[in-house]
Every structure is written in C-alpha cells, then in structure tokens.
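I'm stuck. Please check this protein.
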Amino acid sequence: MIGLLQRVSHASVVVDGGSVATIDLGLLVMIGIEKGDGVKQAARLLDRILAYRVFSDEEGRMNYNVQEAGGSMIFVPQFTLAADTSKGNRPGFSRAASPEISGVLFAHLISLGKMSVVPVLFGCFGKTMQVSLCNEGPVTFWLRVKPNGYLV
C-alpha cells in the first residue's frame, strides 16, 4: 500500500461540483493499493502516516507529526500510484489491486483513521475528483508498505 504524503496549509476535494473534504494545516495523502495488500498493510501505513514527523518545530526542524502540529488529514484514493512506468510511454496498471479490493481496503483505512485522534476526511472512491492543495514547503514523502508488511 502506498501513501503519498503532502504537508499542506490548505487542501480540498470536490466531487460533482460539491466540496466533500476541506482542511487547513495537515496532510493530504494520496493512497495507492497494490495487489497483495490487505488490512495489515492499511493499519501499518496509517501508523506510519500518523507518526511521520513532517511539521516544523520552533527551530524549523521537522520534529512534529500531524497530531502534534494540530493538523487534519484527507485521504484520496489514487490507483495511478501503483502504475508500472518502467517501459514505454503509457503506464501499466498490472500492479494495482482490483477496484473491488481497493474499495474495501480504502474504506477500511478510513475507518481506522476515524478511530485516531487526528481528524480524517476523505475523497470518494471510484469518482472523478478535483483535488486542490497548497503544499507547504514543499514537503512530499512517498511511503510504501509492501504486501509482506515491511515499509520501504
């Protein structure tokens, strides 16, 4: 499972002309789900996202996680993160989990996130979304939990 974290001062998601998620300070996290991912990977990725220190302390060093910074999160499903771009000019998606499995795992990740102390909003699985953000820094990190549960 892949999480592309972006530290934001503002982010929003619009679906069919209506706002479904808006935050100020926090993380916009694009979520890619690969074949072989399961609930174990979702839990591990969430743990890493919540603990990842990407917010600046008083000295300007990245020492605070999203909770310590008083931020919120938006999770956005993005199957293109699982693309194979190793050859040619068109991405392949053979590494991506099926839409059925991805939908279930994305919903599971959201339910886990809602149990955390950090407010979690989310985009809409299977819908075309307009995602807006102001990436603060810019700061962007790519986290991946392999199907065997190890972070790379």
